[in-house]
Amino acid sequence: MDDEVDNLTLRQKFTEGERLVRELIEHLEQGFLPKVDSFRRLVDIKITEIDKVDDITIRNQATALTESDHYTESMVEKLSRVLNSIDEATSRLVNEG
């Protein structure tokens, strides 16, 4: 992706960065954070209710949360590459002027 980003114009880099920020926010608000809350409620159950939760339920929710975390990390990496490319491009423009 670095080569792809480097080949974009500065305007396109800003547009791509903005798109990635919106996508990341949407993922965090609608995907990741609800999974975290759901998992937290599941593992915070009272000892008297522990028999009501199957191990497979905990494993499934932990797996879903882990997958969501991996997606979050990949989004942050993409955004970081775009922002670094913007930084480099703007530094070149400033140094040329």
Could you characterize what this model shows?
The chain is mostly helical and 97 residues long. It has a single domain (2-96), classed as Orthogonal Bundle (Helix Hairpins), CATH 1.10.287. The protein is built from three helices and no strands. Helix 2 runs antiparallel to helix 3 (55-96).
Helix content: over 70%
Mean pLDDT: 91
The assigned structural class equals: mainly alpha
Give the total of beta strands.
0
CATH class: Mainly Alpha
Low-confidence stretches: none
Task: Tell me the radius of gyration.
Answer: 20 Å
Q: Beta fraction of the residues? A: under 5%
Instruction: Quote the CATH topology.
Output: Helix Hairpins
CATH architecture, please?
Answer: Orthogonal Bundle
Features:
single chain; 97 residues; mainly alpha; Helix Hairpins; 3 helices; rod-shaped
